[in-house]
Amino acid sequence: QVQLVESGGGLVQAGGSLTLACVRSGRPFRRAYMGWFRQAPGKERELVSGINWSGETYYADSVKGRFTISRDDAKGTMYLQMNSLKPEDTAVYYCAANENWSSNPSSYNYWGQGTQVTVSS
What we know:
By secondary structure, the chain is mainly β. Helix content is 0%, strand content 52%.
């Protein structure tokens, strides 16, 4: 079993920055595809960014140029650096792990509990 725990959410003004972290524990999952999803009230959960075991990254168009994903497998941790935040980035952010890339949240086997990000205008 794999456990994921997010941290780093909070309240920030528009234009500000936050860094989310996702710590992975449990059984080794070295070639996992790791992703950050978010879900705003009344909206579907969407893939914001992802990274595979070799470091290849994916970004949704809405966050390209503002968010940066990274992973440190030695620490079992994935990060999401979020800059130039906008009110529309407000959501609960979840980290997830899967064997393969997918933008479909139902494809992911392991999820964290989520961390709230609120961007005020």
